[in-house]
Amino acid sequence: MNNIWKVFAIYLAVAALSTAGIEFFVQAPAHGFLQKAANSPTIAEVHGILSIPLADDRALIGASHNVFVAKVASQVGVRQEILSPGVGVPISQFSVEPILNIKGNLQRTVMVEQFGGYQSNGVLVVGDGGDAFGPSSGPSAGHLMQPGSTYLLSTRYESDGVYYLWDFPTASKLISEDRNLSDSQLQSLATNDGRVQQLEVAYPNEILVADDVRTGNTRNSWLSLHPILPPPPPTPPAPSSTPATVSTSTATSTGGL
Length: 257
What we know:
By secondary structure, the chain is α+β, with helices and mostly antiparallel strands. The protein has helices at 3-9, 57-63, 183-191, 194-202, 210-215, 222-225, and strands spanning 12-13, 17-19, 22-28, 34-35, 43-45, 47-50, 66-84, 87-103, 110-115, 117-118, 124-126, 150-159, 162-165, 172-176. The protein has a domain at 53-118 and 130-214: CATH 2.40.50.120. The protein has a five-stranded mixed barrel, surrounded by four helices. Strand 12 (150-159) and strand 13 form a beta hairpin. The longest helix is centred in the last third of the chain and has 9 residues, at 183-191. The chain is elongated and about 100 Å long. 30% of the residues are buried.
């Protein structure tokens, strides 16, 4: 039995997996984690235990360094994240083209890493991101981003040009599967999307991660880009247009013989 099957065959809480400074734990239950439908790959589900309440949009956007809508150009690779000696999980890598920025200002093609992917034995490892990453008939059963599709992505900065997508259902959303739409058409779709608007509203009220604040890793935080300026000094009173009145007094002395 190879190592990956050992991970999924028992109830196991493995060592902390750190993603850009945020620790979370991966836990595999003893039953019900393997699925296989007709003409689809065997799917192994891995569920994270996060210390950040990402279900709160203010915490989600506060824990993200860049939140944006992007079109996937291609899948460029898969790497292994090592959890413990001999045990790893796949991280799929995609080249994406930013369409609309909510937090941050990405203007060029970047790489986004998504938890999950195919193991060498053909098993598709998926996380908590849901199954909204493409048609269910697609090669990765809708669990991975699909080239040509456009998504809302809540990510953390990893290194120059590389961002990690939060593995959480509300951290991403499929905006369009139509690869033929122009950038302006995709921008219009994104601007009018309800989920995009929710995160735009949450951004000014974001809740930053304490460790990020402590280490100065609050990239693109609302306060850093929209500092609260001190109030202006009070305006001095305007000069009066009425000439000043000069008061004079005359002293009278009366003498007597």
